[in-house]
Design a protein that fits this description.
The protein contains 9 helices and 12 strands. Helix 1 packs across helix 2, helix 4 runs parallel beside helix 5 and helix 7 packs antiparallel against helix 8. By secondary structure, it is α/β, with parallel strands linked by helices. Helix 2 links the parallel strand 2 and strand 3. The chain folds into 2 domains: 185 residues, 3-Layer(aba) Sandwich (Rossmann fold); 119 residues, Heat Shock Protein 90 (2-Layer Sandwich). Helices cover 37% and strands 21% of the residues.
Length: 331
């Protein structure tokens, strides 16, 4: 991309960051004008420096920024809100792959993202907050510059408080300051995982995984069909469960116990390994690289499922996979 002539203010120290580091900032705003005071210089500076800029926001926010940028808006890549659905871990994958496509260029690859908070169930809000924390650990070796916009008119106090704990710094217009509330991502994830998962329904059949992954697949397929999944979707869910089972079996230790149940909307599978522990709080968040890694299958399971929850403690480790019985309608 050709560098643009631009005002010196865009090259000031407020927005620019060292090119070799991840930058992850929060922008809390209470009006359209406040949003534009940060978003416009962030975008214009990137274009001036020849850095790619990705916009991942709601259509209304994208329209607001596009109007303010004028002709420069043509040089901004619009991801739409496809990566802002109920599966936030997919956003991590999208941002990582965006950086990989541009990693040979100078400087950062910039992302302006605005998670949608209005109307989200509590479980989805928690999943997004976990991803915000995980970005600092999972994407720490990238040259991404991510600004996460939070509309204080929509996001509640709890959401804004979590935002300040998951972003190392905050930006407002040309001013950047450290977030004193910021917490180390692993420590924060550990604090969020202290509560037990709700117990499985009574009487749910149990499969003891002894290494026979075909038996695990058959067990999962039978439960999926009983829940009303189509054959294709049942096979997809069985793939996710098999990846988790394979990961735990390969680690060694006691045989994992597998349970599958459903309600009117969600198929749930729990895989629990007594005595096992998970050392990585963000297991499976990072997309696979060129060299295979043990947690590649967990990444795949996260992509398939709406949510994949984990717990780890003295009693062992637990994976709980949630899969919609009915596919979401196309956008």
């Amino acid at each position: 991309m050709e560098r643009r002539a631009g005002p010196a203010a865009l090259r000031g120290p407020g927005m620019t960051a060292p090119a070799e580091t991840l930058v992850h900032r929060v922008c809390v705003y209470a009006s359209d004008e406040e949003f534009l005071r940060t978003a416009v210089p962030f975008t214009e500076e990137g274009l001036f420096l020849g850095e790619p800029v990705l916009l991942a926001t709601t259509p209304a926010t994208a329209e607001l920024l596009t109007g303010a940028l004028g002709e420069q808006a043509d040089d901004v890549v619009h991801a739409g809100d496809a990566c802002l659905d109920g599966r936030p871990h997919r956003a991590v994958t999208a941002f990582y792959r965006y950086w990989k496509r541009h990693s040979r260029g100078p400087g950062h690859a910039r992302v302006l993202v605005e998670p949608v908070w209005d109307g989200r169930p509590a479980a989805e809000v928690a999943a997004w907050q976990r991803v915000e924390a995980g970005v600092n650990a999972v994407l720490g070796d990238t040259r991404l510059c991510i600004v996460c916009a939070y509309d204080a008119r929509v996001a509640g106090p709890g959401v804004l408080d979590a935002a300040r704990r998951t972003h190392p710094s905050a930006v407002a217009g040309p001013t950047v300051r450290p977030c004193p509330e910021y917490v180390d991502p692993a420590e924060l994830a550990g604090a969020w995982e202290t509560g037990p998962l709700p117990p499985a329904p009574r009487g749910v059949p149990v499969l003891r995984l002894d290494g026979d992954l075909r038996a695990l697949r058959s067990f999962t397929l039978a439960a999926s069909r009983a829940a009303g999944l189509t054959e294709d979707r049942a096979m997809t869910f069985a793939t996710a469960v098999s990846e988790v089972g394979s990961y735990l079996w390969a680690r060694g230790g006691e045989a994992p116990a597998v349970r599958v149940w459903h309600d009117s909307s969600t198929l749930t599978c729990e895989v629990h390994q007594p005595g096992g522990r998970l050392d990585d709080r963000f297991l499976g968040y990072r997309p696979p690289g060129r060299v295979a890694a043990p947690d590649d299958g967990i990444w795949l399971a996260r992509q398939i499922c709406d949510r994949l929850e984990t717990r780890s403690g003295p009693a062992g480790c637990t994976f709980r996979l949630h899969f919609p019985i009915h596919p979401a309608p196309p956008p």
